[in-house]
Amino acid sequence: MGNAKRLPAKSSAAKIASFLDKVARAPVVKPAGQRGRLIFALDATASRQPTWDRATDIQSQMFTKTASLGGLEIQLCLYRGHGEFNYSPWYQRSPDLLKRMTAVFCLGGLTQIRKVLRHAIKETKKQKVHALVFVGDCVEEDIDQLCQLAGELGLLGVPAFLFHEGHDRRAAQAFEQIARLSNGACCPFDADSPQQLKELLSAVAVYAAGGHQALKDFSKDKGGPVRRLVHQMGQRN
User: Fold this and answer.
1) pTM above threshold 0.90
2) Looking at the domain assignment, is residue 7 inside a domain?
3) pLDDT per residue over 192-220, tens digit each?
4) Cβ(228)–Cβ(235) under 8 Å?
5) b vs e for 202-215, b when ≥16 Cβ sit within 10 Å of the residue's Cβ?
6) For residue 23, what is the domain's CATH number?
7) How many separate domains does the chain show?
8) Where are the alpha helices (DSSP H) in the chain?
9) Is 94 helix (H, G, I), strand (E, B) or coil?
């Protein structure tokens, strides 16, 4: 749930570039032409309403940016209130996801990240999931249990990409460990910069749908962190 009085953490260009670098190095194994499958999980407890509204406005970018790569399937996953945990069908169209997201209102409660990770494990055992995205600001659970589940995701080849709003130290520690154990990445973001969140979400979606080359192509009309990422990739190759 988090403290609503906390100020949002400012993401430096170096931190965002580092995050995108980790995204680029995470393995994606997907037959050509197959849609990428991405679980989009959000903390929908009371303090999250402003960010939920921004994510609702941004979600269409994840579909439009991946259309030429074979497309993307997104499943919305959320928790809120007293133990409430929900997930949607897999959507292939932005209007369907938008309709689902606009029907949601945030409700106070404790975090349920463990359920998110367990759900991602269950889903990828049924059909391959290429990435898990989680947006949140707080962790109120046993971190060792979360790390065990993150390790399972890593073994299954499902990288978790965590977007951390705020500066809760315990959350930062947990998110970083979950990212590392799942072979994903963790990045703080500025809640007052929707463009920043849009580019980060789009980058992960493009990568889930098309891998390294797709992310490189995505950067051609972008500046800042995405272009720095491509430069770093070029130095390694």
Assistant:
1) no
2) no
3) 778 878 888 888 898 889 877 787 788 77
4) no
5) bbbbbbbbbbbebb
6) 3.40.50.410
7) 1
8) 13-25, 49-58, 60-64, 94-102, 113-126, 143-156, 169-181, 194-218, 224-236
9) helix
